[in-house]
Amino acid sequence: MNGCTLRNIRAQLNISQEDLARILRVSLLLVSEWEHDQQAIPEYVAAYLERVSAQGFDSFVCP
């Protein structure tokens, strides 16, 4: 997964960089670096986002 794909998935899920950082328990700076291809996106992040993207974010949110 590259930064553009991550950004597109985040936009599809309608969540901010801040929200994604909170969900993944990483810094906002790291999310920004991923989106600008300045840091490699870890495999666990790519797998999680691909799964969430395929199933829809609501299926992962607790009521």
Automatic annotation (TrEMBL):
It comes from the Bacteria. GO terms for molecular function: DNA binding. This is Helix-turn-helix transcriptional regulator. Residues 6-42 form the HTH cro/C1-type domain. Signal peptide: none annotated.
